[in-house]
Amino acid sequence: MTSFDVVVIGGGHNGLVCATLLAKSGRKVLLLEAGSELGGAARTEEFAPGFRVSSVAHLLNRLHPDVVTGLDLEKHGLNFVLPEQIPSFSLSAKDGPLALTGAYGEDLVGASSSEQVAWRELRAQLFRYAGILKPFLSRRPPDLRGGNSLSETLALGQTALALKKLGKEDMRDFLRVILMNVADLLDEQLTDDRLKGLVAFDAVLGSHLGPRSPTSLLGLYYRLAGEVGGQPGAQLVPKGGMGTVVAAMAASAAKAGVILRTGALVNKIRVENGRAIGVVLENTEEITGAVIVSAADPSTTFLDMVGSRELDTGFVRKIKNIRNQGDAAKLHLALDRAPRFSDLDADAHCGRLVIAPSVDHVERAFNPCKYGEFSPEPVLEITLPSLADPSLAPDGACVLSAVIQYAPYRLKEGWEIGKPKFFKAIMDLLERHAPGIGRLTRHVELLTPADIEERYRMPGGHWHHGELQADQMLMSRPAFGTEGYATPVDGLYLCGAGSHPGGGISGAPGLNAARRIMALER
Amino acid sequence: MAKTAKISSPYAARIAARGHFRTLRLDTPFQPRIDALMKRNDWYDWGGYRAANSLWDEELEYFAIRSQAALFDISPMVKYGIEGPDAEAFLNRVTLRNVSKLKPGRVHYTAWCDDEGHVLDDGTLFRLSDERFRLCCQERHLPWLLDSAIGYDVSVAEQTEAIAGLALQGPTSFAILRAAGFAGIERLKVFDLADFEHQNGTVTISRTGFTGDLGYELFVSAELALSLWDRLMEAGRLHGIRAIGYTALNRARLEAGLIVANADFSTAEHALRADRVRMPDEIGLGFMVDLEKGHFNGRRAIEIARKNKKLRHILVGLEIEGNIPADHAIVYHRGKKEVGLVSAAGWSPLAKRNIAIASLARPFGDTVTDDLWVEIYALRELKYEKLMKRAKVVPRPFIKLDRRTANPPADF
């Protein structure tokens, strides 16, 4: 039986970040990944012969700068060239496309001049407000039991100060809008349906909310609190797919001395006298560790690996109540050649193409999902990664990668029956925007939340490991009692997307967890 | 117009199936017999059931417990049937005591806590067989027990309505059961249980009770309830058997030093105020906490509270000078500083002492036990007479009766 200072369960990007930082602090770290390769939902995978794609996450817009420096990712092959950041296009069959260029629409192209002025003001306000919340991303949620350290208390004070510095009127407005729905806020300031549709789409992407659902604005703040290459709001399609980001992290982990094992499925976390002492693999191999860190989904970690017997009933209730049913599907198309989207310049096809032509459209797409049905007119975000990186597809061919909403995890008719119907709805929609795309399609992969659940071991198929809404944020993420990465089981910590601040390729949960472990387990 | 209402919508069917609100206070299976004996119409509400405070004379009902045999209807007590291969492991996780030490055919008094280590209830656990248990208590806990069952191969069934219960307590209780023909009843030691034939079914009899006296509790399916009552009454006629109400029982349980949930402490799910909840150590149940066994609900919280000395309260027995009952009197240290409250009190005819159960704020009652006083407001013809009486911390129970544990019990 081998023994380690730290055993990290799960080789997704958060597991890698946490493992690397702990190894750099001088600990002997083992990382166990159940799959055959590292990366979790941030992999580049071949989905058809010669066609590769970022399998779930396909855009980089929030990799935390402390993660980039903490893991020396630039030294390990990750280089962001800001000109590589891509614009967003809101496609509309009625009015033609509208472009947000630069970092989340530094310029708005294709709108009236008055709309441009209005957008500039709204954009500045959104970034100002998101900036207040941004420091929370890389900190443990405030401890309601009063166990905050001096520096944590000071940091809270700084947030209060930042609020104050906004000025009276702005501060009032910050507090007024924070729990608003995104649709109402957009209606207050903008008129262009395409712009409002795109921003509304971004606010609800990856959550069980429509733009008119209360608190839907928070999702937009979460998006805008992210940054790439020091540029808030920027986004890019990583060359070689998301797998390159993970490859850089894995290289950094190996350099730091982390022992990386794939194909090692953890069945059980061994608990003795209230303390986690090791893990048991599927092949019954036992590995002991002074500290066990789980990047797996919280319900998997607690209900399957630890088991309810080592936990209190009230805590099990809370874990059971985590809302973790995903609404986003992922579509991969292997195309004979690049498709042509109507009214879009050839260059523009490298951007992020969003089909969400109005707020109403997004809201209508959401409606059926509340009742267990998919959107007959879905909203989606498309990238064509092989345009900028031809290595992802055979010569002259093209890869299309799209995130599609709404595809409820619990489809009433079941995904076996529903999937072909949903696929047809998507292709009908794509055909309207890129005529002929159907004929170009050589191979298809459509991942519903049910598929994502199975393939990436995310119960509910939710890429945030649980809804990212007000009731599951900060000290309520993933549940009160395990909100600060520590858990009720001594020596067991969480470091995945299910913990604060949440999902997306940020590395922030892994970063915060590593810091917390270093503070508590000396 | 005399048309019967037709149930048309699914909602109407559901409403019809839920008639519980039409009778706000339920009858127990023994009600016809109790009604026939009830001379005072003195009822109270016990967990939604109509229960007798006193049937004919509370003083004589009390002395039936101590000198004859008293029959008390405990059907309103909440009862859960817990069964399955994991039943023992499940109960070890839910309750404080070590259920592995409870052998089939035995009963123990236990309690259970929430995550914070605050007591949800106390009760008795009957191990009917290796994999079958019955948990009896004051409050309802089905959602808690079902959620606690996640991850265990165990079933939890609500049995409060289906199982009727009787307590037969007092010096002649054994003689009555023998006269009633329960062969082998003499083999039951304190906290033993066994099944006996009754009509075409069985009655589970345990040598348990809430009086500190020789006594038994009998559990039977509801349809056999009346015939069991008749069998006992018939056999007990020459042994002084009497039906009694709660007032008499409450005096006996005070003498026995036993506590009642939501009378002597607030259960965690009922307490509205944050400082009213209690840990086991704060209500005299610390002895139940078994740290030798595996994880159980509230374990971490209890260990931390013990380690950090965060146990703020203590439950004690008091002996108070004089003979005026100190019900709900405030307890003072040196006659000035308020340190606690009496939750149950009365004159003990058996101990010939004025006794009480009180909750005090530590260190009072714990390390500081001298110079304690209670302030009794005795209402005398529309005038309060304020009495400051000296109180002494004494061990519970206040009485100890050899006949409770004698083997075999005395015959009459």
Brief descriptors of the model:
heterodimer, A: alpha/beta, FAD/NAD(P)-binding domain, 16 helices, 19 strands, 34% helix, B: 412 residues, alpha+beta, Gyrase A, domain 2, Alpha-Beta Plaits, 3 domains, disordered N terminus
Describe the protein.
The complex is a heterodimer of chains A (522) and B (412). Chain A contains 16 helices and 19 strands. With 522 residues, chain A is α/β, with parallel strands linked by helices. Chain A has a domain at 2-41 and 63-75 and 239-323 and 461-520: FAD/NAD(P)-binding domain (3-Layer(bba) Sandwich). Chain A has an eight-stranded mixed β-sheet with strand order 7-6-5-15-16-17-14-18, with helices on both faces. In chain A, strands 1, 2, 10, 11, 12, 13 and 19 form a seven-stranded mixed β-sheet that branches. In chain A, strands 3-4 form a two-stranded antiparallel ribbon. In chain A, α1 packs parallel to α9, α3 crosses α8 (217-224) and α6 (182-189) runs antiparallel to α7 (193-204). The longest helix of chain A has 21 residues, at 113-133. Chain A is globular and about 65 Å long. Chain A starts with a strand and ends with a helix. The relative contact order of chain A is 0.19. With 412 residues, chain B is α+β, with helices and mostly antiparallel strands. Chain B folds into three domains: 10-77 and 162-255, Gyrase A, domain 2, CATH 3.30.1360.120; 78-158, Aminomethyltransferase beta-barrel domains (Alpha-Beta Plaits), CATH 3.30.70; 312-394, Aminomethyltransferase beta-barrel domains (Elongation Factor Tu (Ef-tu), domain 3, Beta Barrel). Helices cover 20% and strands 32% of the residues of chain B. Chain B has helices at residues 10-17, 31-37, 58-67, 87-94, 142-148, 173-179, 225-236, 246-255, 299-307, 402-405, and strands spanning 42-46, 49-54, 69-73, 78-83, 106-113, 119-127, 132-137, 155-158, 163-169, 193-198, 201-206, 215-221, 241-243, 313-320, 330-333, 337-348, 353-361, 372-379, 384-394. Chain B has a six-stranded mixed β-sheet with strand order 10-11-12-9-3-13. The longest helix of chain B is centred in the middle third of the chain and has 12 residues, at 225-236. The radius of gyration of chain B is 23 Å and the shape is globular. At the A-B interface, α11 of A face α4 and α5 of B.
